Amino acid sequence: MATHKGFSIRGIGARTIDSVLRLGYATRFIARTIASSGTSLKRPRLVIRELYFTGVLSLIIILVSGLFVGMVLGYQGYYTLQTYGSESALGVLVALSLVRELGPVMAALLFASRAGSAMTAEIGLMKATEQLSAMEMMAVDPIARVVAPRFWAGFISMPLLAAMFSAMGVFGGYLVGVVQIGVDDGSFWSQMQSAVDFHKDIMNGVIKSVVFGFAVTWISLFEGYDAPPTAEGVSGATTRTVVTSSLAILALDFLLTAFMFGGV
Amino acid sequence: MQRSTLDLWVGLFVMGGIGALLVLAMKVGNMSSIGGGSETYALTANFDNIGGLKPRAPVKSSGVVVGRVSGITFDNEKFNARVTLNIEKTYKFPKDTSASILTSGLLGEQYVGLEGGGDPVNLNAGDRIKQTQSAVVLEKLIGQFLYSKASEGGGDKK
Amino acid sequence: MPDKNIIEIKDVSYAYGTRPILTGINMAIPRGSTVAIMGISGSGKTTLLRLIAGVMKAKQGEVWVDGERVNDLDQAGIFRMRRRLGMMFQFGALFTDLSVFDNVAFQMREHTDLSEPMIRDLVLMKLHAVGLRGAHQLMPSELSGGMSRRVALARAIALDPALMLYDEPFTGLDPIAMGTITNLIKELNAALGATSIVVTHDVQEALDVVDYVYYLSDGKMVAHGTPEVIRNSTDPLVRQFVYGEFDGPVAYQYPAKQLADDMRLPGGAAH
Fold it and tell me: What ipTM does the predicted assembly reach?
């Protein structure tokens, strides 16, 4: 890492060149990972194992957060809509906020801090303890054996987790809005169904979560693989994973939203 | 971790995720009401003003959703808007049906309302609905209201 | 020629950028022998090991391993060569997410089509050779330093390599574990009929095991010979290393200004 370059013109220039180089290296890395996915295809067990670590172990945090976010939306939405006398639109508000934005974004942020940081730490430690070198010495490519299965597992679990987050959130909104406050059950669901479009809203949400899944897994794996092989190196890389992933998720969300909903 | 336990959890996870997607599609979205399976036929109607009507807005008759707006274009001969409606095959409407653009609630979305007449002959695919009523444009309404108030009160207030 | 010597290194030089790591190295290691590459930290011995394993390629000179010129090999060729090669890393480098059994079975599962019962027998045999057959279901985190090293050894010999590389096998071990590893290196070399290269700075253990010693200093081969020759060497560099003298040609003091200058004493060159 480039430290103490200061804020001089030269320092800024050097850092810019550093980041361009790093981006280039990261791109080569992900290209190599995707190109070496053959092992993962031939031995799906490798991916299943990683699905357990990235997907199943993230379930609790995703489901609980989804429920709470949905319940909060139920309260806030109700008190806002009540002012205009349109409480019956609560279902629409809850569902659209979750499916379009909160589901993919929140699930990705949670995924980055739960599964992404774990991936970085794991690969960083494997590198620091020479496990990756040992694998290479045994004529096994660590990118194919270690990195690619994790990449596919992250790529697969992200949209599933986001869908579960949204579904759980809608349920939370229903609990607060219908069960507790007493918004009409029928209009809650029917207004939601007539306003939420499968292609425009749900599929776009899924596309978002697929993009986020790609970005978060890429960042996590690369930071781990590129981490300096020391304790500080790995902990620094783990922090960078969470920070970079969060920024990437929010920036990509802006771009995707502008692209998907900005045109019409 | 035993292999079978791991497989079980991953299986449950993937099923849960796909299940959540299905719930979103069926229960939250409108996949169930307008599925790919139900056949439709097209009708057209010309309106002087469609207000804020959007493609895919519902078409209702007596409050029942009978179809969707499939297209909105400008008619170069009549100089007004031509709206294409996709009506589900199971619903029939007589020749003298009237179409109007209505709003659900004060600020709700706009939809097309169909009201059947008494003609024994039904509309066929591609037919045009002749009696139409344009969208109520709020600004126009307020303008009319102010104008009538102004003429009543002698015109000293705006 | 490759029939007699498993490794031939001819006039090899290597540099990181402009910083030379190795200069003009020549080595010939006959089959079946046990050889030590010694030197202080930073003398380039690990780099030499990496050149042999094909992790890096020599910029000048030739590296021949088992009849193949490593300089010419592409990635697939390097991987093919490495299947005949076993390496034991400094701290074992066991895969922490796999059990002892799966660690030893790793290469068999990756590179062979052997059936699971066959793999089971082979793994237990290999573990038996290092005295840890009873520990096969443990995880690496449950092993002591010496035990991890032995498991790593069992893993390295899983596919009966023709050439064994040991990177600092004695570092951080207690005397008993050190004795165990020393003994195992000797025994396994005889049992496998393999050639062993031990990179180390633990002089006494290494001199007990090996047939021949290469001594590196500052990227140059300054001495080589049998353990006897090295023990009786008069070269000050070798003497300092073998007998662990704290000052000598390798200076105790890190290069610095005159003491008087740093202490700001009168009479120093500074004002």
Answer: 0.79
